[in-house]
Amino acid sequence: MSATGDARQTGVVIAAHRRHFEVLLQTGESIECLQKGRERQLACGDRVEVVRIAGGGAIERIAPRDTLIYRSDAFHEKLIAANATQIAGVVAPGLMLDEELIHRWMIAAEAEHCRFVVAANKRDLPEFVALTRRLSSVTRLGYPVVELAARHDVGPLIPLLSGQRSVLVGQSGMGKSTIINALAPSAATRTEEVSTSLRAGRHTTTATTLYPLPQLGEGTWIVDSPGMKAFGLAHVPPDVLEHAFVELRPLIGKCRFRDCRHDQEPGCAVQDAVACGEVQPFRLALLHRLIRESAGVRSPVV
Ligand SMILES: Nc1nc2c(ncn2[C@@H]2O[C@H](COP(=O)(O)OP(=O)(O)O)[C@@H](O)[C@H]2O)c(=O)[nH]1
Ligand SMILES: [Mg+2]
Ligand SMILES: [Zn+2]
């Protein structure tokens, strides 16, 4: 009981659509909620306190977040999930696959001290061999890549997801929904219900949704986000970006100039590492691109 005598209940946001939210209460019941103040945007995974009002609940308090995964460009931010422990990127063979996107998810995860894993889907296709080769830039950095054919068996993903709070990201068509439906059999119906209750109309795929996976351990959940073509990281400041590149971490501070941008400067440890093949050139190019994108951006939301 709070000082006002309100019967507050705690829960977690499991669907977010503009100012309407679905909150799964600790009792196991899920209710539609409105956010009272507007001081902070809510995301799936946010732990909240709600009070009952007619027809649902009102969100009174948001607990401090461990992590926040979101994407942004110079003009917009799009929250994906709060309190996640890892990002799981779903990829599959095909010309559509955007490799830079995979590395952007990785940087988003590292910037929030989250784990990063890749689910390489559609192992049953002959083109899969080429995908494995393309993912060598990821395995080389030490990140786990799990191969699977989600349509037949999501088993290979279980050890990676167990006990974690994961955000599933991927371009559309890679198999995210197939994975979610196999892990959370209620998912297909949930999507329908959520879209109705949150008045998202028929554009159900635009909503971000959290699925508890209690069978994989207490507190385990996974968030399905809409398929995305771009993953802007304009909100990540340059010093955080640099540390988000795992292979650059041991090199930071080793350049001749303290404010080295690892561009044309003499005595640059990073450029040296590229020259001798220790750092992949496209990774340094990506760092430079991300730094340019984050320059001049106003301070982040939250
Ligand atoms: N061959 C093959 N196709 C798959 C596999 N998993 C998913 N698909 C197909 O890929 C298409 C896109 O899958 P979907 O889960 O909707 O992708 P999403 O857009 O990422 O949610 C569908 O036609 C799926 O049946 C797989 O393991 N092997
Ligand atoms: Mg889908
Ligand atoms: Zn340098």
Q: In short, what is this structure?
A:
This protein has 302 residues and is α/β, with parallel strands linked by helices. It has helices at 99-111, 128-134, 136-139, 158-161, 176-183, 187-197, 238-244, 269-275, 281-294; strands at 9-17, 20-25, 30-35, 47-53, 56-62, 68-72, 77-82, 86-91, 115-120, 145-147, 165-170, 208-212, 221-224. It binds guanosine-5'-diphosphate, magnesium ion and zinc ion (ZN).
Query: What letter string, H or E per element, gives the SSE order?
Result: EEEEEEEEHEHHEHEHHEEHHH
Domain module tally: 3
Q: How many individual helices?
A: 9
Strand order, sheet with most strands: 1-2-3-5-4
Biggest sheet: strands, sense, closure? 5 strands, mixed, barrel
The name CATH uses for the topology of the largest domain is: Rossmann fold
Parts with pLDDT < 50 across at least 5 consecutive residues: 1-5, 200-205
Beta content comes to: 25-35%
* CATH-derived architecture of the largest domain: 3-Layer(aba) Sandwich
What ligands can be seen in this structure?
A: guanosine-5'-diphosphate, magnesium ion, zinc ion
End-to-end Cα distance, whole Å, is 28 Å
Average residue pLDDT:
90
General form: globular
How many strand elements? 13
Which CATH first-tier class of the largest domain would you pick? Alpha Beta
Class derived from helix and strand content: alpha/beta
Helix content: 10-25%
CATH superfamily of the largest domain: P-loop containing nucleotide triphosphate hydrolases
List strands and helices in order, with pairings:
Elements: E1 9-17, E2 20-25, E3 30-35, E4 47-53, E5 56-62, E6 68-72, E7 77-82, E8 86-91, H1 99-111, E9 115-120, H2 128-134, H3 136-139, E10 145-147, H4 158-161, E11 165-170, H5 176-183, H6 187-197, E12 208-212, E13 221-224, H7 238-244, H8 269-275, H9 281-294
Parallel strand pairs: 3-5, 8-9, 8-11, 9-10, 11-13
Antiparallel strand pairs: 1-2, 1-4, 1-12, 2-3, 4-5, 6-7, 12-13
The structure holds guanosine-5'-diphosphate, magnesium ion (MG) and zinc ion.
Guanosine-5'-diphosphate (GDP) binds at residues 121-122, 124-125, 149-151, 170, 172-178, 227.
